Amino acid sequence: MTIQKRNFYIMWVSNFLVAGTATMIMPFLSLYIETFGDYSPQYVQKWSGFIFGVTFVSAFLMSPIWGRIADRFGYKPILIINGFGIALSIFLMGYVTNVETFFFLRLFMGIVTGFIPTSLAFISAQTPKESAGKTLGTLQMGSVSGTLFGPVFGGFLADSVGFQYTFVITAAAISVAALLVSFGIKEVRKVKSSHDIQYSRKTVFSSLIHHRLMLHVMIITALIQIGNFSIQPLLSLYVAQLVDQSDVALLAGMTFSAAGVGNLLFARRWGRLGDAIGYEKVLTVLLLLAFLFIIPQAFVQSLWQLMALRLLFGIAVGGLVPTTTALVRREAPIEIQGEVMGYNTSFRFLGNIIGPFFGGIVSGYVGISSVFFSTGALFLIAFFFLSYTRKQPKQDFEKVLSHEQSLQLPN
């Protein structure tokens, strides 16, 4: 077995463990806050939002920094730091007694929460450009599989052994993933020569702004996440409007998982198609399909209709992340690939931050059904963004980098 193939298998398993166990604690965050004292529902809801969102804020700020460090020292050290950092923060969460401490631990977790995006960048860097889409799509199947089973297993554990032991078990599983990386991964790094150009952070960022395709991919990445996260927190409420049963939480979980199943089934296929015909073409089609499949969700009259549409929507969005990542892999020079991937990850986390607020505001004023329209509009905007970019003359990212570097040199 080649080093690259062994690295891939280890990262697939590690991503499954990290995604699955990290999402185990999601279903009961608000319930855990209630154990700290006799709080009003408004207080619990407010702090649940703060504690959920603060992780993405710190992750948004840190992602480019981790990427730049990875370019200098390699991806493996970052994966190890992130893995054990997440495990430590989750372990300590099991022993907190007030919301303030819980908030700061979630903040710290965001600082080190880039395990899965870093794994994508790591595998992307060792994968030939012509097969990056298929490989990244397959890798995403690991994290999606974990995300599907994690919340269900976490809820079962919380009911069976309590919140504290669930945090401890979660931390232990993520530590296993970090140990797998520590002792199983062998990173083959490019040997840097004295002739390699060192680009400043300012140069890299300025080049991203002035390269049409890269800038629009970053914006599209944020729009995708805003679209996904705007409806997710409201899905259980929407399901409750469609059914008159006591087991709404289970039915909402099944509805949520329907999109994940579609994602799981087609992520690899979309990646392979992108390798064959071009990532821009596939991304354009996927954004249009996401728009077409999310709008009808506002008109459903029964739960099975919503589940079917969520499955189709999951099939469409399943290719978005591996396709955008492969596109960045194709355009970015290897010596700054980690930093560029870091910026792409930051835009993903920015979408994660904005999405719930956006969905909450829209649903609060117009109703939950309207969120599907606004989300569809975001995918349509992203579609037109990319269609416009594809019609423009192509730019070489390395030439843009050289130009921006020359502008910053002293005369």
Automatic annotation (TrEMBL):
It is a multi-pass membrane protein. It is found in: Cell membrane. The keyword Repeat does not apply. Gene3D superfamilies: MFS general substrate transporter like domains (1.20.1250.20). Signal peptide: none annotated. One of its GO terms (cellular component) is plasma membrane. Its main location: membrane. The chain crosses the membrane at residues 12-33, 45-66, 78-97, 103-123, 135-157, 163-183, 204-228, 248-267, 279-300, 306-328, 349-366, 372-389. PROSITE patterns: MFS. Pfam families: MFS_1. Residues 7-394 form the Major facilitator superfamily (MFS) profile domain. One of its GO terms (molecular function) is transmembrane transporter activity. Keywords: Cell membrane, Membrane, Transmembrane, Transmembrane helix, Transport. This is MFS transporter. The lineage of its organism: Bacteria, Bacillati, Bacillota, Bacilli, Bacillales.
